[in-house]
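ERR on first pass: missing label on line 2. Operator R.T. fixed the label and resubmitted. Corrected input:
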Amino acid sequence: QSALTQPASVSGSPGQSITISCTGTSSDVGGYNSVSWYQQHPGKAPKLMIYDVSNRPSGVSNRFAGSKSGNTASLTISGLQAEDEADYYCSSYTSSSTPYVFGTGTKVTVL
Amino acid sequence: EVQLVESGGGLVQPGGSLRLSCAASGFTFSNYWVHWVRQAPGKGLVWVSRVNGDGSSTSYADSVKGRFTISRDNAKNTLYLQMSSLRAEDTAVYYCARAGVGYCTSTSCYPAFDIWGQGTMVTVSS
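pass 2 clean. output:
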């Protein structure tokens, strides 16, 4: 099972919006509404930001929004803040022998 | 407080064995699937293994199948990962994670990882 494809880096200025893509196949992203997104600050554990494509867990800012079209999911961060600078990973359930797959990860830089 | 706390990491020689533990608290441990996810230094997250609530169903990544064994002791609220025949490429931070939120169909559920431990480092080197 290959990792889902994400851009290596995305950057934006404070207050701007950025979008991170996550491309898979019909066996994972395109086949299930189980895409989730995780934020990871250096040296810290991942934190769930979005699940089931577009749902936010309690306590996650509404500046984070998820969507999906076909085999590509997206995470949009609006009103970019310095604290949003981190690595972001998408994940999806898959129909392969490995039930879950993560994306390659995207480093978000706030300029 | 809902939390997971890993332990058991360390330095081990190639071909050696190690057992990781993950202690759960603040929730009914037996109600959840729990997973191991690892992250090699400077690399991304990789799913490793999972076990269902009563320990009767397990799955593994192809890279660890036959070498790693996941198990749980619900009386102790603890998840384990027994690792053997360790290789340099197993060097990573190992996280345990609860699969706690997500949708279900009439036949299956597809939960995301809502609670993570802080991770424990495993280094395989001579």
